């Protein structure tokens, strides 16, 4: 069954199905319980009650370790511009080609019940049910990230979550990490601009962040970055508005998405790609495998490809959104990961967490199931619910021939040799502040944006220890001396109140 083509509803007001136990036996009263006589003790033979309680006890599955709070919907991607000159990805086959998909948006650091309007990056994930397998875009609403060394991810995330002793969010932990890992500055600039508090999921962009390789059957390839620009326009909360919404309606983004789609106001995004040939990449000013850097749009223009539209709400949130499992390693012919070490680590981490969160057969859950998969050498395991390939041989049997379709790997542009080293991507240097300063200047183009930025930082930083604050002022001074000075003045004032 294709998730997007699932029956519209299994729920009909005018039908009265027969209520049964979970093994299908009719029962007269869902609220009754078995006992001898009028007030005798509960009988262990009451399967209906025991089963009900035992199932309830197991209703929760582990929440996502990051991006736990989210909302999603189904949609369609339509190609508007041919790009066969750069890739053979089937989904982009011809202008007008449509591919069904499911999308999930999320905050990052908060728990499953946390407020949608928190200052945080937003996840922007889409699973496309293509004719050549599921292709997942596991993107954020920012074009860069806090780190370029994958080993730092769990460490960084710990500092954005709760203090191990107090179980409170902790401003000192938060800024201690960022001010001692200053390659994060570009992402910190994004996060504390008003784009760090989007008005809703419909009003933000999505970015691949990572560089990928898009390939052609002749083995040639280009390096790419994908951008999804909201057709609703960027709209943000101020810090005060976001705080107010967190207490008045912590589920605002979830509600906004659901109600817009229900009303027929289908949100859409125009999808673009930035392209560099291997030769251009070699001479490029920026290391294209450094996740803390963008490709300036003036130098690498955006090329339109198509439109993503979300047009259908889910029928059941748990089945279709809580259980949806995205992974940067769910790729299709025509696309390969680049050597960006953060991307390479993510290729492992997501299926690993899905096996923990959903079980080894997570790809069989209807929302995750590809249009067609035939992989009979993967068998059994917990919750093998799709027939388990029946009598098909579980090894490459000479009695059952399969068709193996050739897939050409891209010509290797990167050639590696040398001893194994254990080292960082690179040390922080002045280059790490250039694009951060570029964004500071972009903010200066819109009246009030720089002032908001200073207010957004100081309102958060003022709760950190003095020495952490001092190191953070120095960090912002490396972006722009006046910025560091203004943040120091406003933060110290609030800290001393
Ligand atoms: P340009 O001067 O060509 O364009 C500025 C870009 O800045 C816009 O296209 C917009 O991205 C983005 N932008 C505008 N306001 C904000 C904001 N409040 N917060 C975050 N981004 C904003 O830009 P360059 O490509 O030379 O980049 C300048 C800076 O813009 C970069 O240092 C980077 O921080 C940021 N940026 C760059 C992107 C890129 O891929 N090149 C993407 C997003 C941000 P958009 O059109 O995507 O909305
Ligand atoms: C979710 C790991 C970096 C975007 C997750 C999850 C894990 C994880 C374990 C939970 C997945 C689940 O339970 O379903 C990592 C690691 C990273 C990393 C180890 C770096 C080494 C990034 C980056 C981006 C990103 C750079 C964006 C460019 C997302 C999104 C989700 C997510 C959008 C939510 C997916 C959903 O909607 O289900 N990440 N992540 N992550 N991550 Fe990452």
From TrEMBL:
InterPro entries to which the protein is assigned, alphabetical: Catalase (IPR018028), Catalase_AS (IPR024708), Catalase_clade1/3 (IPR024711), Catalase_core (IPR011614), Catalase_haem_BS (IPR002226), Catalase_immune_responsive (IPR010582), Catalase_sf (IPR020835)
Keywords: Alkaloid metabolism, Heme, Hydrogen peroxide, Iron, Metal-binding, Oxidoreductase, Peroxidase
Catalyzed chemical reaction(s): 2 H2O2 = O2 + 2 H2O
EC number: 1.11.1.6
Cofactor(s) required, per the database record: heme
Major enzyme class: oxidoreductase
Active site: 67, 140
GO cellular component: mitochondrion; peroxisome
Binding residues for heme: 350
Superkingdom per UniProt: Eukaryota
GO terms, biological process: alkaloid metabolic process; hydrogen peroxide catabolic process; response to hydrogen peroxide
Domain Catalase core: 20-403
CDD domains in alphabetical order: catalase_fungal
A Gene Ontology molecular function term of the record: metal ion binding
Pathway this chain belongs to: Alkaloid biosynthesis
Pfam families in UniProt: Catalase, Catalase-rel
Family designation: Belongs to the catalase family.
Function: Catalyzes the degradation of hydrogen peroxide (H(2)O(2)) generated by peroxisomal oxidases to water and oxygen, thereby protecting cells from the toxic effects of hydrogen peroxide.
Entries under PANTHER family matching the protein: CATALASE (PTHR11465)
Protein name as catalogued: Catalase
């Amino acid at each position: 069954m294709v998730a997007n083509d699932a029956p519209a509803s299994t729920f009909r007001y005018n039908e009265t199905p027969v209520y049964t136990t979970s093994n299908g036996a009719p029962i007269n009263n869902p609220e009754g319980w078995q006992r001898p006589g009028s007030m005798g003790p509960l009988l262990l033979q009451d399967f209906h009650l025991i089963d009900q309680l035992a199932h309830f006890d197991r209703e929760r599955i582990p929440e996502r370790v990051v991006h736990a709070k989210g909302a999603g919907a189904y949609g369609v991607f339509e190609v508007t511009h041919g790009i066969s000159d750069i890739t053979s990805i089937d989904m982009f086959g011809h202008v007008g080609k449509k591919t069904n998909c499911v999308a999930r948006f999320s905050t990052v650091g908060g728990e499953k019940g946390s407020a949608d309007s928190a200052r945080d990056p937003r996840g922007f994930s889409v699973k496309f049910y293509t004719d050549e397998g599921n292709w997942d875009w596991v993107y954020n609403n920012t074009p860069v990230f806090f780190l370029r060394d994958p080993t730092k991810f769990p460490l960084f995330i710990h500092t954005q979550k709760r203090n191990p002793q107090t179980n409170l969010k902790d401003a000192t932990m938060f800024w201690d990490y960022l001010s001692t890992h200053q390659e994060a500055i570009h992402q910190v600039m994004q996060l504390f601009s008003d784009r760090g508090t989007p008005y809703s999921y419909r009003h933000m962009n999505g970015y691949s962040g990572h560089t990928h390789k898009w390939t052609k059957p002749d083995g040639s390839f280009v390096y790419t970055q994908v951008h999804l620009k909201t057709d609703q326009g960027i709209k943000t909360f101020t810090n005060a508005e976001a705080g107010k919404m967190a207490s008045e309606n912590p589920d605002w983004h979830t509600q906004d998405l659901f109600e817009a789609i229900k009303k027929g106001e289908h949100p859409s995004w125009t999808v673009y790609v930035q392209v560099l040939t291997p030769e251009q990449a070699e001479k490029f000013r920026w290391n294209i495998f450094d996740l803390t850097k963008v490709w300036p749009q003036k130098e690498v223009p955006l090329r339109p490809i198509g439109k993503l539209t979300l047009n259908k709400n889910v029928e059941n949130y748990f089945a279709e959104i809580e259980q949806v499992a995205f992974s940067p390693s769910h790729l299709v012919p025509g696309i390969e990961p680049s050597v960006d070490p953060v991307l390479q680590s993510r290729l492992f981490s997501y299926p690993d967490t899905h096996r923990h969160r959903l079980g080894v057969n997570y790809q069989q859950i209807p929302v995750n199931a590809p249009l067609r998969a035939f992989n009979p050498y993967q068998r059994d395991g917990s919750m093998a619910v799709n027939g388990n390939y029946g009598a098909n041989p579980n090894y490459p049997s000479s009695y059952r021939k399969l068709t193996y379709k050739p897939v050409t790997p891209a010509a290797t542009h990167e050639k590696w040799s040398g001893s194994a080293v254990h080292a960082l991507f690179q040390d922080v240097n002045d280059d790490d502040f250039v694009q951060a300063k570029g964004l500071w200047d972009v903010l200066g183009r819109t009246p009030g944006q720089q002032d908001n930025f200073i207010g957004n930082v100081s309102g958060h930083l003022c709760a950190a220890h003095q020495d952490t604050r001092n190191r953070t002022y120095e960090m912002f001074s490396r972006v722009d001396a006046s910025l560091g000075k203004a943040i120091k003045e406003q933060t110290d004032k609030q800290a001393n109140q």
